[in-house]
Amino acid sequence: MPETAIDTRTEAQVATPWNVVVHNDPVNLMSYVTMVFQKVFGYSRDRATRHMLEVHHLGRSIVWTGSREQAELYVQQLHSYLLQATLEKSEGC
Amino acid sequence: MLIRKWKKKAIEFCRIEQIEAELLRQVPACCDLDEGSKAETRIFPSPTNTTDPDLLRDWDEYVRPELRHLFRSAKETVEEDLGLLKMKVGHLGRFLVPLEHGEPWLNALNQARLILAAKFEFSEAELSTFDLPRTFSQRELVLHQINFYAAIQERIIEILNMGEDHKGPEESR
Question: For residue B172, with 0-12 CB atoms within 10 Å meaning exposed, 13-18 middle and 19 or more buried, which class applies?
Fold first, then answer.
């Protein structure tokens, strides 16, 4: 008999946006981090550089916000480039 | 050593001196991880700063093996390319890396640098120092090795970005 999966999450839980955060790392080169942001998110050179500088100066940058599933995928991609990235619930939700 | 784009299809490493060849050949070995080491924690960081047992379990089960495979594959690509580097006494070395191997090279060089930095516990200040060493301890020489790999990474990134940003005489450097 086929099983029916029931999603017990509330609408609020499903809709909660998640942030992809990249953390500063003294080893990764600035040019490399910029290149990775362009490749993973398709950002322009300017936007990728802005995020890279935010990571460099402030220690972290929220590089993307959206669904949890997509955020997990982005974190995995960033890890594949050896960047320190985490996902976290967006504040205020 | 000179690193430049070659006929729009490869990265040419040429005029390689003996010491540079030796450092290049050490890249794959530098990518080897000791289990449970600080370096391993850095290469496979947690995907979250909070406690999320489901996420962490899934990450360990599904994502880490994929990452491990990707990192091993990048190391093997570099190892294979380095097999083409033959040094003869009194001659400078040369070998070509296909352009599509550029990313695996960046990845392996990054692994090597991250693992060496974690193993030798270099601080952020030390990693941004480019002064000549006052002593020639193993630690100071490793710092130079990390910076040597960083310089190669910078050059590969420039070459890979050439298609996007430059239409100029890319083979002039």
Answer: exposed
CB A62 within 8 A of CB A21: yes
Give dist(CA B116, CA B113) in Å, integer.
Answer: 5
B-contacting residues in A 27-86 (Cβ below 8 Å): 27-29, 31-32, 35, 45, 72, 75-76, 79-82, 84-86
Other beta carbons within 10 Å of A31: 17
Tell how strand B2-6 and strand B93-98 pair up: unpaired
Amino acid at B61: E
Q: Does B111 touch chain A (CB under 8 A)?
A: yes
Contact assignment for B146 to A35 by CB distance below 8 Å: no
Q: What is the ipTM of this complex?
A: 0.87
Q: What is the mean pLDDT of residues A22-30?
A: 94
pTM of the entire structure? 0.87
Element containing residue A38 per DSSP (H, E) = helix A30-41
